[in-house]
Amino acid sequence: MSGVRELPEDCTTVNLADPWFFQLHDQYELWRRLRAKNPVFQTETGEGRPGFWSITRFEDVQRVYRDNRRFTSERDNVLTTLLAGGDSAAGKMLAVSDGERHRELRNVMLKTFSPRSLRSVERRVRDMADRLICEVVERGGDFAADVAEKIPMGTICHLLGVPESDQAYLLTLTKSALSSEHEDATEEAAVRARNEILLYFLDLLDGIRKPPSRTERSGAGRSRRRRSSSTATASSSAGTRRAGSP
To answer: Among 79, 39, 78, which Cα is nearest to 56's?
Structure first.
């Protein structure tokens, strides 16, 4: 591979939290070496941030994934957020919960994602893909940017009741929050984008919910509102996590 730097002799010295390392080195060779010689190792990131453990063999990853007693998702499951101290919504959302809480959230969503309900979603995804592909064929463009990244976000936004006119704005925010494409992106900009997403869904919930009952006016009602907006935020963010994103 032209322009790719040599990997260090000891690959356990690599900082896997540094995206520039993967830009400058052959990551496939890195993973091959780690699977062969260091299937489990710890990375120290420095800069006063905590380190983390990496497991590189598929069979080991599967065992960890299934064992939520010793390994939990409740603190978060995005490395950049974990290294920054964790997510305030961790342990409350479906993707970052385990055990009883996870089952409760999953049961609430089962009806929405039943095979019968998903038939209409499938038709919508097919229609969206056909339309986007036809547009790219007619005018030209980039498949990843003009088709692939719009389908997950468009589908999730439809399920969440996000107006189509807001989807491009929301896509820009979630990319800034999770995996900015700009080299000069800062952590401050990512935090600001995450806050903007949360505020957006709070406003969206205010617009579609019924007039508040006595419970809604109580602290319990406000707590449910925050949890709902956190879940919606996580769902929309999932639509931008493409292959290769941190």
So the answer is: 39
